[in-house]
Design a protein that fits this description.
By secondary structure, this protein is mostly beta strands. Helix content is 0%, strand content 55%.
Length: 119
């Protein structure tokens, strides 16, 4: 059974950067579609970014609100997916999760890593 662990969150000032890591154990995730999501208390979890690999090319998607500021990437040697977050805003404050897409759903959610951005 694959397990995902998120790390890299913290409390930062607006305009600075953080790099989140989603590290997998149990099996390799290099061929999986991995998604990053975030959730604020009282609100639904929302999609942030995803990365996939079909053996030929990489496919990446971003939510409109992070385009140009966040970058998702893979580190296959460490069996993880990274989320580089730049120019952070107070509204980026949330609990960030990663998950593996299976079929049309995301599963194997990690426990999340908290990002707090103060203005």
């Amino acid at each position: 059974q694959v397990q995902l662990v998120e790390s890299g969150g913290g409390s930062v000032q607006a305009g600075t950067s953080l790099k989140l890591s989603c590290t997998a154990s149990g099996r390799a995730i290099r061929w999986d579609i991995i998604g990053w999501f975030r959730q604020v208390p009282g609100k639904e979890r929302e999609f942030v970014a995803s990365i996939g690999w079909n053996g030929v090319s990489t496919s990446i998607s971003y939510a409109a609100f992070v385009k140009g500021r966040f970058a998702i990437s893979r580190d296959n040697a460490e069996n993880r997916v990274l989320l580089q977050m730049n120019s952070l805003k107070a509204e980026d404050t949330a609990l960030y999760y990663c998950a593996i897409r299976t079929g049309s759903e995301y599963n194997f959610w990690g426990q999340g890593t908290q990002v707090t951005v103060s203005s």
